[in-house]
Amino acid sequence: MSAKPSAIIFGGLNTFSRTLAALLVPLEGEALVSNLRIIDKYSVAPPTTYLGAEFPKVLEKPNVEYRQANLTVPATVASCFEPSEGQGPFDYVFDLTGEVQWDRPEEIQISRTFNVARILGGEAARRHVKAYVRIQHPFYECSEKGSHDEKENVKPDDVLGTWWHESLRALAAIDNLNLVILRTAMVYGPYIDFGTITNFIVVAAVYGYMKQPMKCLWSPGKHPNHIVHSEDVAGATWALAEWMAGLGRKEANAIAGEEILFKNDKSKVKSVEGMVSPDTKCIAPLFNLEDDSNLTLAELGKTVTSFFGTGFEFHSFFINTAAKFKLEDLVEEINEAHVGEWTRMITTSNPPIPNTQYTAYMDLNKLKKSVIAFDATKIKSVVGYKLRHPTLTNHVMQNIIDKLKAEGSWPNLES
Ligand SMILES: *[C@@H]1O[C@H](CO)[C@@H](O)[C@H](O)[C@H]1NC(C)=O
Fold first, then answer.
1. Among 78, 176, 304, 308, which one has the highest count of C-beta atoms within 10 angstroms of its own C-beta?
2. Would you say 256 and 378 are in contact if contact means Cβ atoms under 8 Å apart?
C-alpha cells in the first residue's frame, strides 16, 4: 500500500492547475500523490481551452483522471468527491476555481467564484479532507509603500476582486475546514496564457521584433509589480497542503491565522445566499507568495524587454493626456500598433501559427496602473518554502519561449 496522499484539483485549467498537476504527477520521476483527479468545466478531449503541450501527457498517466463537471451544482460537487473503486477518500483538495475574466457581470462573479468556493468548501469539510488549499490571485490594489505582509489591509480590485475576497471569508467561516490560503503575486511561466505578465511578454516581443522601445503609460514611479513563477505557485501549494495535513485548522490558525476583513457592500448580505455577516470575524491561515526580485514596473519592463533586445520607456504623451482622457477611450488606439504587428508575426512565422491563444491585446484591466506586492517572508519562515525561481532570468524566459515555439504557439521568425 502506498502511504502517499490522494488529491483533487478543482478548476484552474485556464490558470495554474496544469502546472500543479505536472508537479504532483510529473512526466519523469516519482509522483507525489497516489492518485489525482482533476475537475473543471472544460472538455480536454477535444480541448475547449488551451492546455499546453505537457498537460495532455500528464492526463495519460494511469493514476490521473480528468472529469468535466459543472461545479455550480452541489450534487455534482458531492459526486466529484466520491473516490473511485478500490480507493480511499481524497486527502487533499486544491481549489483553483473562480472566474478570472474581468468583464463578466456581478451575477456571474457570484455564481462562478463565490458560490463554487462555498459549495466546495462545505463538501470538503463534511468529508474531513486533510488539507484544502485555496489559490487567491492578486485581484487587489496594494499600497505603494508598506510592509506588504499578510496583515496589510489590501483593497479588492473591482467586482471580480470583491467576490474573490468574499469567497475567502466564506471558506474561512467553515470552522472544520482544513483551509489554507495561498495569495500570489502576478504569475508567469511555461504554458501560462493567463494574466498580465504573459500579455506583457507578448507585447515586449512585438516591440523587440519592431526594434522599438516598449512604451509604458505610467510614470516611472517606484510602484511594485511583483511576480512569481507558476512552478513556485505549484510548489507552495503542495508545501501548504503538507503543512496543513500535519496540523489541522485550529493549530494552523493559531500559527498563521489572519483576519479576512469584510470588504463588500453590506446591503448584499441579505440578497446573496451564504454571505457571511460583516460582524463575523473570519480567520484563516494565509500566506503570500512572490519571488525575491521585488520589481518595480520600470524594472519589470526592463527585465522583459531586454530579453527581446529592446528597451522600456515611458510615454509622455499618455502621461500628459491620461489626466484629460479616460483610459477606456484610449484602449483601442494603444493596441492598434502592437496587435497588428503581432498578427504579422504569427502569420509570417515559419510555420504560420495564426490560431495561437497568446495575444498582444491589452485590455483595460491590463493597461491600468496596478500595484502588486505580497511579501513572502511568512511562507518561508513558517512553512520553510524555498523558491525554485527567485528571479526572472533570461534563462527562464528562454525556457518559456522555447516550449511555446516547440508546441507551435509562439512565432518562429528570422530576426
Ligand atoms: C451549470 O449549472 C447551472 C445551474 O444549474 C446552470 O445555470 C448553468 O447553465 C450550467 N452550466 C453549464 C455550462 O451547463
1. 304
2. yes
Closest residue to atom 13 of ligand 1, CA basis: 70
Domain assignments of the chain as residue spans, ordered by start: 7-189+227-294+372-399, 196-224+295-371
In order, the DSSP letters of 227-266 are EEEHHHHHHHHHHHHHHHHTT-HHHHHHHHEEE----S-T
∠ CA 8-12-17, rounded to 5°: 60
What's residue 1's pLDDT? Answer: 47
Q: Which is the CATH superfamily of the domain at 7-189+227-294+372-399? A: NAD(P)-binding Rossmann-like Domain (3.40.50.720)
Q: By three-state DSSP, how is residue 10 classified?
A: strand
Q: Which residues line ligand 1 (CB under 6 A)?
A: 70, 72-73
- Identity of residue 176: N
Buried b / exposed e over 327-354, threshold 16 CB at 10 Å, is: eeebbeebbeebbebbeebbeebeeebe
Sites in the chain below the pLDDT cut of 70 = 1-2, 220-221, 316-325, 415
CA-nearest residue, atom 5 of ligand 1? 73
* Cα(415)–Cα(412) distance, integer angstroms: 9
Distance (angstroms) between ligand 1 centre and the Cα of 45 equals 20
Q: Please give the Cα distance from 290 to 376 (Å, whole number).
A: 6
Tell how far the Cα of 72 is from the centroid of ligand 1, in angstroms. Answer: 7
CA distance 206 to 51: 24
Q: Which of 343, 357, 360 has the alpha carbon at shortest distance from 199?
A: 360
Residue 116 grid coordinates: 463554487
Q: Are 296 and 225 in contact (CB under 8 A)?
A: yes
CA of 284 to the centre of ligand 1 (A): 30
Span from the CA of 53 to the centroid of ligand 1 (angstroms): 29
**pLDDT the model gives residue 323:** 54
